[in-house]
Amino acid sequence: MSARKLAMHVYRGLVLAFVGLVTAHVLFDFGYPRWWNFLPLVLAYGLVTVVNRSGGGARDDKRVIREAVEVAPPVTGRWSALNSPADRTPSHGVHGYGQTFAIDVIAEPEPGARPGFRALWPIARRSTDFPAFGAAILAVADATVVRAQDQQRDHLSRTSWPALLYLMLLEGSVRDLFGFGRVFGNHVVLDLGNGTFAAYAHLRRDSLTVREGDRVRAGQLLARCGNSGNSSEPHLHFQLMDGPDPDTARGIPFRWYGIGVPRNREIFEAPAAADSHA
User: Fold this and answer.
1) Which end of the chain has the least Cβ crowding within 10 Å, N or C?
2) Bigger pLDDT: 40 or 243?
3) Poorest-confidence range of 7-21, 40-54, 146-160?
4) How far apart are CA 101 and CA 86, in angstroms?
5) Cα–Cα distance, 187 to 138 (Å, whole number)
């Protein structure tokens, strides 16, 4: 286990200790000052700061940006982009989990097909209300499957202010404590070779068509788009990274054949892949 991976486990343990101490202090009358409960939290963030500055003790701490790797698009049809690295990096606001150059794509088969955001009502919608739910997710290159998980449930959307605040202030933080698997939800990681790995997140439960160790071809069906993990609505989160473990990997820029990198809210059309079995 690398130093960075070990540090992530210790960090999550310290945060859980903080939550446990605060809860216990509310329920029981302990004799020590309440501010002592925050010591695990201070240690946790101090640990993360030290590890980030030191590079985790495993690799050079300089963030080397590799040349963009060109791959096939992971979807077909009409989609739009959100949180795109064409507009800013890190695209999702953090480098963690290899997300520096990640992108989210949402199915837009025609104008108005996708339910829009609402201030208050409905608070949440079923996943089946969104055209992305169940869409085919394809291999972007010939590769080997190194991670494959699809047993987490697809939850309701978070497309109102109450639901979105719940996601950002509570649900997202709790998921982060349990590691990238709960953040990514159902996911697949492919080894493309040459130190490049492709990660697909928020897949539909029980939709995987591949297992760890399988060889896949570009355009092959991997799974279906879902709404698992730290997701506001059914969509695909896609990224390239330099290792198979998002806890320790760093992001790699990508380009899709014939498309490039769509900008935020840009509509793009991905051609059907000849090898797909969608």
Assistant:
1) N
2) 243
3) 40-54
4) 9
5) 12
pTM listed for this prediction: 0.83
- Unique residue bearing structure tokens 């972007």: 140
Cα(4)–Cα(62) distance, integer angstroms: 15
Q: What is the pLDDT of residues 41-66, one digit of tens each?
A: 677 667 666 655 544 433 434 456 78
